[in-house]
TrEMBL record:
Keyword Ligase tagged: no
Organism: Pseudoduganella lurida
Protein name as catalogued: Xaa-Pro dipeptidyl-peptidase C-terminal domain-containing protein
Domain Xaa-Pro dipeptidyl-peptidase C-terminal residue range list: 358-622
Keywords (A to Z) from UniProt: Hydrolase, Signal
Top-rank lineage group of the source organism: Bacteria
NCBIfam families: CocE_NonD (TIGR00976)
Lineage: Bacteria, Pseudomonadati, Pseudomonadota, Betaproteobacteria, Burkholderiales
Length: 629
């Protein structure tokens, strides 16, 4: 008996040299509370898109939430390996799991598991896209398939996603499938030239290059650039122009780099892609909640632009909503209790997701759900730190808003106040802008890829540059009463340069009192509320650049990003002006060249910049002031 049992054990043994990598392995799924299905969904042109469907076990008549992504659908549907749907899906999806939703992630055509060609921010069918497909048709075909092939659904679909994934939500709205009942685009890329990822007012954003490498060198995720430097400030400065930097990594050979370099101005290539314009020209058929962070360091422009383009057709506030939290880019999907040094009244992102977004989706997607009490605008006011339910946005602007903005003037002696200059003193202040020593956007060493540097940079204390000789700083007296700003500050600068082109960076800053007893490290903090850059060559036309006449004062008018903030009594208002923000933005060589991407070393020249403050040339910022009641 002993011998035969030994023999049978021996027979069952695995030979030592059996290969150890499984031919096929599937973890047992009995214990999981969800089911995952991976399908290839056919589009109208035959291309199949890789789609991951995650369903709660036993789901019946469940609504679907769809995200279309260039960032790996399989990875998006797998926060961690877990038997629970809650831990498997991303943090921002936790409420959907509790509410029994079906969650779907899909790779856009050409990325990761999907067939077809990838075109970065593929334009809608029209002058730039002569094919029969775009993200609108792909969303349509996908939704059509989902409602016909998932037996557990009630046939109602919502779409949401942030950034690129927010762009694909907006694209679906261009020609929505009837089953698409609600949409939440978050921090969407809307206009890559005016103020989202690639450029701001014509100044090129250098992080675009590593992004192109990661997205377009391979179908999956590309390698980071082998820069060979710790401080990106050094590496990028040393390269010279953007095209020279791109060449260093072979990025100039990539098609999307070529497209960018061929379109430095706001020509028809950009105008036809501007999604706010495209959507504003169509009828909005799907209730849409536009979401963005007040300090969104990547796509701070698009959500407001779409909201305002669609608002024209939504006078009775039933379709078009705006939500702004005190968040970084995509911060809405993570923990929103703080940003950099700023602390809020709790997890503001969770508050929004749970108390506003979830009831909104439920209303349109869940059978029998109550009508949600969704405010037309839900905006976290900073300074006072509280959510506000508003009936529209902005609350203050130059004309046509509930309040009218008030100009704050730059004055002699680096003063700032609400009275226009009376004249008599110096006509201008000046500084030398040297492209060999551009002003850094964060303290050096600049680690562009470091999340802790990049994500909160828009709330970074500005004292690290305030005393640079090439930064002009105007500051008010301490305020005696709160100053509420609710809208987009408008820059109105009279400036000259000794060069023939120049960039103008303008910041509106809340200067904290010297002591802040409840949070001592905020003593004297210079909190940027709103800042942006404008490339001088576009002052008369965004599409047709023109050289600047050397030493001639000219008027520069442009909008800064929206703000909803109260500068409290005892705080001061500050405005800073400088001519570079490096290496986030490429340097303006300051000698006019037709295409700055190809500027030569000799084109980079020092220039003397003057900011005027006379009764005629009165440089000001129109602040979106809401009077105290
Ligand atoms: N801001 C990123 C992006 C969006 C659209 C195009 C390119 C980049 C993103 O976070 O997805």
């Amino acid at each position: 008996v002993i011998l035969s049992s030994l023999l049978s054990t021996a027979q069952a043994q695995t030979a030592p040299m059996t290969p150890d990598i499984a031919g096929k392995y599937e973890a047992p799924v009995e214990t999981a509370d969800y089911v995952k299905r991976v399908v290839m969904i056919p589009m109208r042109d035959g291309v199949k898109l890789y789609t991951v469907i995650v369903l709660p076990k036993g789901a019946k008549k469940a609504p679907i939430l769809l995200t279309r992504t260039p960032y790996n659908a399989a990875g998006r549907a797998k926060r961690s390996a877990s038997p629970t749907m809650l831990a498997t899906l991303p943090q921002g999806d936790e409420n959907f799991v509790q509410e029994g939703y079906i969650r779907v992630f899909q790779d856009v055509r050409g990325k990761y598991g999907s067939e077809g060609d990838y075109v970065m921010t593929r334009p809608l069918r029209g002058p730039l896209n002569k094919t029969k497909t775009d993200h609108a048709t792909d969303a349509w075909d996908t939704i059509d398939w989902l409602v016909k092939n998932i037996p557990e659904t009630n046939g109602k679909v919502g779409m949401l996603g942030s950034s690129y994934e927010g762009f694909t939500v907006l694209m679906a709205l261009a020609d929505p499938h009837p089953a698409l009942k609600a949409a939440v685009p978050m921090s969407p890329m809307v206009d890559g030239w005016r103020g989202d990822d690639w450029f701001h007012n014509g100044a090129f954003r250098i992080p675009t290059l590593p992004y192109i490498a990661s997205q377009t060198t391979v179908r999956g995720r590309g390698e980071p650039l082998a820069t060979g430097v710790y401080d990106d400030y050094d590496g990028i400065l040393r390269a010279g122009s953007v095209s020279a930097y791109a060449r260093q990594f072979g990025l100039d050979k990539l098609n999307y780099t070529k497209k960018l370099f061929e379109h430095p101005a706001y020509d028809s290539y950009w105008q036809h892609q501007a999604l706010d314009k495209a959507l504003g020209a169509r009828k909005l058929k799907v209730p849409t909640m536009n979401v963005v962070g007040q300090w969104d360091q990547e796509d701070i422009y698009g959500a407001y632009a779409v909201y305002s383009a669609l608002e024209q057709q939504d006078k009775d506030n039933r379709m078009n909503y705006l939500v702004v939290g005190p968040w970084r880019h995509s911060g809405v999907n993570y923990d929103g209790s703080s940003l950099g040094a700023l602390k809020f009244t709790g997890d503001t992102a969770l508050e929004f997701r749970r108390d506003v977004m979830q009831p909104f989706f439920n209303q349109y997607l869940k059978d029998g759900a109550p009508v949600a009490d969704t405010p037309p605008v839900f905006f976290y006011q900073t300074g006072t730190n509280r959510w506000q339910r508003l009936s529209g946005w902005p609350l203050s602007c130059e004309t046509g808003c509930p309040s009218t903005s008030q100009a704050v003037y730059l004055k002699e002696g680096f003063k700032l106040d609400f009275s226009a200059p009376a004249g008599g003193g110096a006509a201008y202040d000046e500084y030398v802008s040297d492209p060999a020593k551009p002003v850094p956007f964060v303290p050096r060493p600049v680690r562009m890829g470091d999340r802790d540097v990049w994500q909160p940079w828009l709330v970074r204390d500005q004292r690290f540059v305030t005393d640079r000789p090439d930064v002009l700083t105007y500051v008010s007296e301490p305020l005696k009463a709160p100053l509420q700003l609710s809208g987009a500050p408008q820059v109105d600068l009279y400036a000259s340069t000794s060069g023939t082109d120049a960039d103008w960076v303008v910041k509106v800053i809340d200067v904290y009192p010297d002591e802040v007893p409840s949070q001592p490290e905020l003593g004297g903090y210079q909190l940027p509320l709103s800042m942006d850059i404008f490339r001088g060559r576009y002052r008369n036309s965004l599409a047709s650049p023109q050289p600047v006449v050397a030493d001639k004062p000219e008027r520069y008018r442009f909008a800064l990003p929206n703000v909803n903030h109260v500068i409290l009594p005892g705080h001061r208002v500050m405005v800073q002006i400088q001519s570079s923000l490096f290496p986030l933005y490429d340097r303006n060589p300051q000698r006019y060249v037709p295409n700055i991407f190809y500027a030569q070393p000799a084109d980079y020249i020092k220039a003397t910049q003057r900011i005027y403050h006379t009764p005629e040339l009165r440089s000001a910022i129109a602040l979106p002031v809401v009077p105290n009641r």
